[in-house]
Amino acid sequence: MKPTTWIQARWNRLRAAHRADMPALTVARARELTSRHPECGPAWKLLGTALIALARYDEAEEAIRRATALCPTDRLWIPLAEMGHLHKARGDYETAASWYRRAIDTAPDEAGARIYLGGVLAQAGKLDEAEAAHRAATTCERGCRDEAFLNLGLVLRALDRPEEAARCFEEALRLDPRYLPAKQALRDVLQAMRCRGSRCRKPTPTAV
Questions:
Q1: Contact yes or no for 157/173 (Cβ under 8 A)
Q2: CA–CA distance, 1 with 188 (Å, rounded to integer)
């Protein structure tokens, strides 16, 4: 088998394991690929992702650093954000946020890093800052704007602003009509608003 054919075949197998959410298999296949072709940056990145899932954080950090060193400038935000995921998994939200901000600085028009930043800020209870991050993500030219609107809506829901949240969920569904999390979140806030309007009281039975 030619080297390029072998690399492509192993990469396809590695990516399939990653997409199937099989971290142990992903680690094994990534180790196989990087042992023979250590210049394969994407394989190091998937190795780091899988090691995070297995809570092998020191190994994950080493893999992500290798991925970062091999990454082209226009894709650098991806391993930088992955380092943010590592620290988020460790429970260090402040350090995670700093890595996400580095990713944003590298690719300011990419929604993904701003979504990640908003998510970790929300988990840290910094809802106002999370709102700002997600709102900025909705204006990006690249990335999942439907996800940005969903996450902005979730933060607005947490801030007890259901009408604004509903508009965000509706926009997410306009961008992707089959977006199930947005459908569920929209149903939640609409029913909550109706409950507030009726004060969640059942009508008193009328005497016959």
A1: no
A2: 55
What would the pLDDT profile of 96-155 be if each residue is shown by its tens digit? 999 999 999 999 999 999 999 999 999 999 999 999 999 999 999 999 999 999 999 999
> What distance in Å separates the CA atoms of residue 33 and residue 88, rounded to the nearest whole number?
27
28 CB-near residues (< 8 Å, 6+ apart): none
Between helix 23-36 and helix 41-53 the angle, nearest 10°, is 150
Both structure tokens of 11: 């990469």
* Alpha helices (runs of H) in 71-161, residue ranges in sequence order: 77-90, 93-106, 111-123, 127-137, 145-158
The three-state secondary structure class of 2 is coil
Tell me the torsion sign for CA atoms 156, 91, 184, 15.
Answer: positive
Would you state the structure tokens that stand for residue 29, as one six-digit string? Answer: 């296949």
Nearest Cα to Cα of residue 112 among 80, 157, 156, 89: 80
